[in-house]
Specification:
The chain has a five-stranded mixed sheet with strand order 4-6-7-9-8, with helices on one face. A two-stranded antiparallel sheet has the order 1-2. The two termini are 30 Å apart. It folds into two domains: 1-120, Orthogonal Bundle (Helix Hairpins); 124-272, 2-Layer Sandwich (Heat Shock Protein 90). It has helices spanning 28-77, 85-117, 129-146, 166-182, 214-217, 240-250; strands at 2-8, 11-18, 124-127, 150-154, 162-165, 189-197, 200-207, 254-260, 264-272. With 274 residues, the protein is of the alpha+beta class. Helix 1 (28-77) packs antiparallel against helix 2.
C-alpha cells in the first residue's frame, strides 16, 4: 500500500492510495508520481467545490431579488406624505414580512451551504425516538393550534434506538412539520409518527393539506423550488425540503413522499438501523 495526502490551502482534504503493485514493491519514483497525481487531484477537488459554491451563491442572489425589490418599493412609497394611513400600515407590513423572509432565507442558505460543502459534522449518538418526537411535537403544537390544526403523535413505546445526529434529525422533522402547518386546511390534521420497517426506522409527517400535483412532486427537493401557487398561501425559502434531504442522506437514509392534490401529503424519512 502506498498513500499520499491530498492537501490544498495547507489543509488535508483526503488521501490518494495505490494498492498491490503488479510487479515488485513500490519505489521512490512511484511515490513521486503518486504525489504529483495527488496534488493535481487536490486542486481539481478544490475547484469543483468553488464552482459548486459559486452556483449556490448565484442562485441565492437571484432569489433574494424579489424580497429586496418589495422592501425597496415599500420604503419609497412610505416617503410620500400624502400616502393614506391604511396604505402606510400596509407598506410597513410588507417591509416587516419581507425582512423576516430574507432572514429565514439567509439562515437556510448558510445551513445548506455547510451541508453541501461537507463542513457540517454529524454528531452520531443513540437517539431515543419517542423522546425526539415528543420534543418536536411540543415545539410545534402552539404553531399548529394557532392555525386551527390538530397535531398528534403516533409511535410504539418499544422503538429501537437510532444512531444519528439528534439536532439535525430534529431540524428535519421541524422543517416537515412547518410545511404541514403552512399548507394545511382549516381544522386540518397533522400526524407525526415513527415505526420500524424491516432493517429501517421510519419517521413520517402526514397532513390533510392542499396536496401536491404529481407533475410537481419530482422537483420538491430542488434548491429554491416552490410549487406554483404555494407563494400565494405562505412565504417560504424554497430550501426546507432540500435541507431535509441532505440531512437524511448524511445518515445514509432516503426520503420519500406521496401526495394527492386536495387530500394531503406524507413525507417519510427512512433511516437504516445498522
Amino acid at each position: 500500500l502506498l498513500g499520499v495526502p491530498l492537501v490544498t490551502k495547507n489543509k488535508v482534504i483526503g488521501a490518494l492510495e495505490a494498492i498491490n503493485k503488479k510487479n515488485g514493491g513500490f519505489t521512490e519514483e512511484d511515490q513521486e508520481i503518486l504525489m504529483t497525481l495527488g496534488a493535481q487531484a487536490a486542486i481539481a477537488i478544490e475547484n469543483t467545490y468553488l464552482f459548486q459554491q459559486s452556483d449556490l451563491i448565484s442562485e441565492f442572489v437571484h432569489e433574494i431579488r424579489t424580497p429586496l425589490s418589495s422592501i425597496t418599493t415599500a420604503a419609497q412609497l412610505l416617503q410620500y406624505p400624502q400616502l393614506p394611513k391604511d396604505k402606510h400600515e400596509q407598506m410597513a407590513k410588507v417591509i416587516q414580512t419581507e425582512s423576516i423572509r430574507l432572514s429565514e432565507m439567509a439562515t437556510s442558505f448558510l445551513r445548506l451551504a455547510r451541508l453541501e460543502s461537507g463542513r457540517t459534522r454529524f454528531d452520531f449518538q443513540e437517539i431515543n425516538i419517542p423522546h425526539l418526537l415528543v420534543e418536536c411535537g411540543n415545539l410545534m403544537e402552539m404553531n399548529a393550534s394557532q392555525e386551527g390544526l390538530e397535531l398528534t403523535l403516533d409511535y410504539p413505546e418499544d422503538l429501537p434506538v437510532l444512531k444519528g445526529d439528534y439536532d439535525k434529525i430534529k431540524q428535519a422533522i421541524i422543517n416537515l412539520l412547518s410545511n404541514s402547518i403552512k399548507y394545511n386546511r382549516p381544522k386540518g390534521q397533522i400526524t407525526l409518527r415513527s415505526f420500524v420497517d424491516g432493517e429501517n426506522i421510519v419517521i413520517e409527517v402526514e397532513d390533510t393539506g392542499i396536496g401536491i400535483s404529481e407533475e410537481y412532486q419530482q422537483r420538491l427537493y430542488e434548491k429554491f423550488y416552490r410549487v406554483p401557487g404555494a407563494e400565494n398561501i405562505s412565504f417560504g425559502t424554497g430550501l426546507g425540503l432540500t435541507i431535509v434531504k441532505r440531512i437524511v442522506e448524511g445518515h445514509m437514509g432516503t426520503i420519500r413522499s406521496k401526495s394527492v392534490q386536495g387530500e394531503g401529503t406524507t413525507f417519510s424519512m427512512v433511516f437504516p438501523l445498522s
